[in-house]
Amino acid sequence: MGNPYLAAAAIMLGMGAMQFGFGLFGLYVPTRLTAEGVSPFVTSLVVTGWSLGFLLGCRFAPGAIAALGHVRAFAVSAALLAAVALVFALPPHAGMW
């Protein structure tokens, strides 16, 4: 049987990495939209939507963890975050962001 503290540390490290990535996107998105000439109002809507999505994820994540288990819920969260990161590589369009 493995050390439960080591398992918890791995999860916390993974969540810390995801939070770090979230913070980087919080800086990247408004900077990129401003550089592309998008209006400040639309930029603020995109950033607000990003934060609202994070809030909704915090609200519904406990149910996903209860239904799927923490490993599968973490894998789904990481996969969604990777897919969103790939969308950001597409040509800039505020509606897609």
Label this structure with key terms.
97 residues, mainly alpha, 3 helices, 0% strand
Overall, the morphology is: elongated
Tally of strands: 0
Taking all Cα atoms into account, the compactness measure Rg is 16 Å
Low-confidence stretches: none
Mean pLDDT: 84
Count of helical regions: 3
Summarize the helix and strand pattern as letters. HHH
Characterize the biggest β-sheet.
Answer: none
Indicate the proportion of strand residues.
under 5%
Distance between the termini: 44 Å
Considering DSSP H and I runs of 4 or more, what fraction of the residues is helical?
over 70%
The assigned structural class equals: mainly alpha
Describe this structure in words.
This protein has helices at residues 4-35, 40-68, 70-87. It is mostly helical and 97 residues long. Helix 2 (40-68) runs antiparallel to helix 3.
